[in-house]
Specification:
Length: about 240
């Protein structure tokens, strides 16, 4: 079996070790990685491998949206925050769970995003307490053409300062929120309700195991070839987040 470079064929904490895609998706479904530090790589104790966010109450819902919307929501919910606090620290103070991986041991990628979202849908994030999910940006406001200033596939938002090999970024942070909404639509029986939510309104996913398995089947197929330049953005073109 050709394991390729896809993240679901690599161990989450050791990319040099291969695994089957089926094992990855079995782990996602069981929530095997939910009780881990989703802030690894951030400054201080919060970012240590065995660290955990300490929330102010027993129910810290998951929060998603464009980066600016997430930060604005956390600022508004954490009065008295210090201006030098990081994005992650502000959101922990605001008593919400966000995905904020910046480390090298467990680096951010789309596989980690799917793990985190599945954990959120099941209420299994550390400190989450209930399967509550909030959106700092209303999913109904998304427009791939960019009418709201957030187009899809144009490398808008934050990207790492060091480009990957070849200087080509596959996506930037703004693209990720489009993906997250699509994934929840696939993973939840009630995905259509996403597009009726107001900003900040809670969503409870009715998790669909068959939806995850359908996604597994799609992703483990041999990829369709895209001509060079069809979906990429280069370091020199990246937008500042």
């Amino acid at each position: 079996m050709d394991m390729g470079a896809a993240c679901w064929h690599r161990r989450r904490d050791d990319a040099s070790r291969v695994q089957s895609g089926g094992s990855y998706f079995d782990n996602v479904l069981s929530g095997g990685s939910c009780d881990t530090n989703w802030y690894e790589g951030n400054y201080g104790r919060l970012g240590e491998a065995d660290g955990r966010a300490v929330f102010s109450s027993a129910a810290a819902p998951a929060l998603l949206g464009f980066d600016e919307g997430i930060d604005a929501s956390c600022r508004a919910s954490a009065p008295g925050y210090a201006k030098d606090w990081t994005h992650a620290t502000r959101c922990v103070a605001a008593n919400v769970n966000i995905l904020s991986l910046y480390g090298n041991r467990v680096p951010y990628n789309i596989c980690r995003n799917l793990e985190w979202q599945t954990c959120a849908a099941k209420g299994m994030l550390p400190g989450q307490g209930t399967p509550a999910i909030r959106f700092a940006t209303a999913p109904s406001s998304l427009d791939p053409a960019g009418a709201t200033g957030k187009p899809l596939g144009q490398c808008k938002g934050w990207v790492p300062s060091t480009p990957p090999t070849g200087g080509v970024y596959g996506f930037a942070t703004d693209d990720v929120f489009f993906l997250e909404v699509c994934l929840f639509n696939e993973l939840c029986y009630n995905g259509h309700e996403l597009f009726t939510l107001a900003e900040g309104e809670e969503f409870i996913c009715k998790f669909d195991e068959n939806g995850l398995r359908e996604l597994q089947g799609i992703l483990l197929q041999e990829p369709v070839y895209d001509p060079p330049g069809a979906w990429e953005c280069r370091g020199k073109d990246k937008a500042k987040g």
